[in-house]
Amino acid sequence: MFHVDHEIALSVLEQIPTPVMAVNRDFEIIFMNAAGREVLGKTWDKIEGRTCHSLLNSAHCQTPECLMVQAMDTGQGYTGRNELNIDGRTIPIEYTAAPLMGKTGEIIGGLEYVIDISERVRYEQKLRDQSRTIMEISTPAIKLWDRIIVLPVVGVVDSLRAQQMMNAMLEKITETSSKVIIMDIQGVAAVDTAVANHLIKITKATKLMGCRCIISGISSAVAQTLVQLGIDLGTVTTNSTLEDALIDAFALLNYEVKQKK
Fold this sequence. Notes:
The chain has helices spanning 6-15, 34-40, 52-56, 67-74, 118-138, 159-176, 193-208, 220-229, 242-252; strands at residues 20-24, 29-32, 78-86, 89-101, 107-116, 142-145, 148-155, 180-188, 212-216, 237-238. It is an alpha/beta fold. α6 (159-176) packs parallel to α7. The N and C termini lie far apart (103 Å).
């Protein structure tokens, strides 16, 4: 069997640039490498024998979510995300916990190594912010006239986009007390059963807000597709152009446009 000298093994663990920790069955720390001691800002004599939860104070500590608990209970390794709270600092981490085996194969504690993922979390948040901004830009609910909103829809309408459209419309209805909203789908790439169902759900939601929804931009190709698929838009008012939709909106609100003399 391959044998590694004890001192060499400890030297390797000490040089690993990410925190490595071992605890006994009572969660008392029996080993922590140099990277871990640096994160805590403590020397080994201030760490040895302390419980891991008293020093790390993570979101999972002393809860069923703790992967160290799970590893010792099941004898298997686990990886997950967590947050450390050390001296007022919150550090997002990815950590892996595994059972620590004794010479006869019994579980005598747990091993854990930690990776600081602060940069990854910031990058992921940046991507979410950018995605949200793009969605807001691509789904603008615009006040077109007094109590009339228009929502021009361009591109693909999937479940996420439909939810964004609904949120934008309902927020604008609340903000402007509008009574008619025109959803112009002239720029939608394709209309199938899924898209039609999304549109119907949106019109029902706006109706619950006391607002009528008109769908404009129904081309001849879209009309044929809806008929071929057997999709019934029910009582939803539809128009081929935004201009016709606006005329219908004026009629619903008893508006009359007169030319100045």
